[in-house]
Design goal:
Keywords: Dioxygenase, Oxidoreductase
CATH superfamily of one domain: Aromatic compound dioxygenase
Number of strands: 11
Pfam family, one: Dioxygenase_C
Number of helices: 1
Shape: globular
CATH class of one domain: Mainly Beta
InterPro entries: Intradiol_dOase_C, Intradiol_dOase_core, Intradiol_RC_Dioxygenase, Protocat_dOase_a
CATH topology of one domain: Protocatechuate 3,4-Dioxygenase, subunit A
Order of helices and strands: EEEEEEEEHEEE
GO molecular function: ferric iron binding; protocatechuate 3,4-dioxygenase activity
Largest sheet: 9 strands, mixed
Distance between the termini: 44 Å
Radius of gyration: 18 Å
CATH architecture of one domain: Sandwich
Family: Belongs to the intradiol ring-cleavage dioxygenase family.
Oligomer: single chain
């Protein structure tokens, strides 16, 4: 008897089927506290080809630097109008755009302070596991002292920095593998 090989599995293309109710391009509501920021970009592979089935999952602190999570024991207030979470699918050209608030700084390990940032999980076909990265904001004074950003070689930090364009929309792209411009991904 001949047996067929077991197929390998990746996170796509089914990672967001059935969960479309979580997709939203605006993570805020009118009563959300803080400065609203729009973030736009594109997901491409190492050859520059569009990845048109990716999805970004965004996690972040509120404008005061407080996560809406029981493990965040800071005395700061939770914003009842901000969840700090959203899912953003890309379009046929691999483009995405979402609106959120600029998060406050949060505590790091050993008494350090982390610069305002968004945690982003990238899901796409061909990935065995999601990829984890961050978005920092260009010109943020705390970037120079951020303990995680300091671990990234200076020539690679730009892949984590969203820069505002002439309209004030922060541009940040995800480049998957294969080049020296690949987005920095973390394993933690």
């Amino acid at each position: 008897m001949t047996l067929n090989a077991t197929t390998s599995h990746t996170v796509g293309p089914y990672y967001h089927i059935g969960l479309t109710w979580l997709n939203r391009e605006d993570l805020t509501v009118p009563a959300t506290l803080g400065e609203r920021v729009a973030i736009s970009g594109q997901v491409v592979d190492g050859n520059g080809d569009v990845v048109n089935d990716a999805m970004l999952e965004v996690w972040q602190a509120n404008a005061a630097g407080k996560y809406d999570h029981p493990e965040d024991e800071q005395a700061k207030a939770v914003d009842p109008n901000f969840e700090g979470f959203g899912r953003v699918p890309v379009d046929a050209e691999g483009r995405f755009r979402f609106t959120t608030i600029k998060p406050g700084s949060v505590p790091g390990l050993q008494g350090t302070t982390q610069a305002p940032h968004l945690v982003v999980l990238v899901f796409a076909r061909g990935l065995v596991k999601h990829l984890l990265t961050r978005i920092y904001f260009d010109g943020e004074a705390l970037n120079g002292d951020d303990p995680l950003l300091a671990c990234v070689p200076a020539e690679r930090r730009g892949t984590l920095i969203a820069k505002p364009d002439a309209q004030g929309v922060h541009q940040w792209n995800v480049i998957l593998r294969g080049t020296d411009k690949e987005t920095v991904f973390f394993d933690y």
